[in-house]
Every structure is written in C-alpha cells, then in structure tokens.
Amino acid sequence: MFDRIIVISLRRRPDRLAAFRDRIAEAWPAGAARLTVFEAVDAHRCPPPEWWRGPAGAWGCYRSHQRIIEEALADELDRVIVFEDDATFAEGFEILLAGTMSALPADWGQLYLGGQHLRPAEAVNDVLVRGVNVNRTHAYAARGGERMRELYRHLHAGDHWRGKHHIDHHYGRLHSQRWPAYAPREWMCGQADGKSDISGRQDPERWWQR
C-alpha cells in the first residue's frame, strides 16, 4: 500500500517515539513492522534563517516535512505515509485505512488521515471529502510522481511563507487552489496528549472536527 511508512521524531524526545511505537503496533501491526524513523530537524541545533518570523519549532517541522518529500522524490517512491510522533489512532484503523485508500480518486495528491478543516470540505463519495484548507500534519499520505513534484515546488515557494510560518498553513494555501487533497469523512488519526515541541504547551488529546 505504501513504499515508506515514516514517523518524525526528535532525538531528544525518545519518550514520544516509544509511545508512538506502542500505539502503531496496536493499531497497525503491519505498518509498525515497516516503520522508518525520520530524525526531526531540531531548531535548537539548526536555527531558522533571519527572515523566518515564526517559532523556531515551526521551522524544524517545516524542514522535516520538506526533507521527507525531497527524499521520497529522490528515491522515486510512489506512495508515502507520514506521521508525527504524537499521532494516535482510531479503533479499527487498519481496516479504515484500506477502505479509504480504495475510495481515493485517481487524481489524489494528499490524503489526510487526521487534521482540522479550516474551511468546509467538499463531499466526494460515501467515504471521502475534498479538503479546501486542511490544517495539521500529524498524519497524511502523499502520492509520488508529478503530484509530489507539485507539492515539493510549493514547499520551496519562499514568497508564500511571508505571514504563514507553519507548514500546515502553507499546505492549506495549496489546497485552496483546488489541489487534490482528500480526507475521510471521519478522522482515523488524532493527536495524543502531551507537550508540544512547537508551542511548548501541554495539550490534551485532540481530534478536532471528527
């Protein structure tokens, strides 16, 4: 189903990675067996450039996702799935994922497994909606080939970053251009409770508009 199954995790947060491994092993054993850990870009070690006006943690998040897409393109992967290490899973996740993938239209570029619709999504079929502006990056799939090249070019459009310093907002700008980002009608991934590496807040478990 996927060429690479990725979790983004900071080296200095082994507690979060261990907790994620437990959650995915229970929800998706086959995925857990093939999990690739991507060491997140740590803004404490790799500080943002002077023009960056957002939080340092948001810079690390952006660069981590950007590098994952870059590596997937370089390796000519067809499908990747990306989790952040605070992702949590709905009951029956493995079956839900298979059903959602089988319902995807041929033009898909991203599939959000969890998130937050900042604008009302558009109905597609009994399983899916089309995102017009999807927020959050804790669980999504990306399709390779030309769709991923489009995504990669968008992530490098520097002028677009002015005033939008979180990658999920930047993705949302692309969605608003009718780019094919889809989501299940019911989220299958949420964010677990814990301290955010970007905001520093202690957040409860969140599912937003599930």
What would your notes on this structure say?
The structure is a single chain. The protein is α+β, with helices and mostly antiparallel strands and 210 residues long. The chain has one domain (4-203): Spore Coat Polysaccharide Biosynthesis Protein SpsA, Chain A (Alpha-Beta Complex), CATH 3.90.550. Helices cover 32% and strands 23% of the residues. It has 6 helices and 14 strands. It has helices at 14-27, 29-33, 56-74, 93-102, 146-155, 167-175; strands spanning 4-9, 35-39, 79-84, 87-89, 110-112, 116-117, 122-123, 128-130, 134-135, 139-143, 181-184, 189-191, 194-195, 202-203. Strands 2-1-3-10-5-11-8-7 form an 8-stranded mixed β-sheet, sandwiched between helices. Helix 3 (56-74) packs antiparallel against helix 5. The longest helix is centred in the first third of the chain and has 19 residues, at 56-74. The protein is globular. The relative contact order is 0.19. The model has no long low-confidence stretch (mean pLDDT 92).
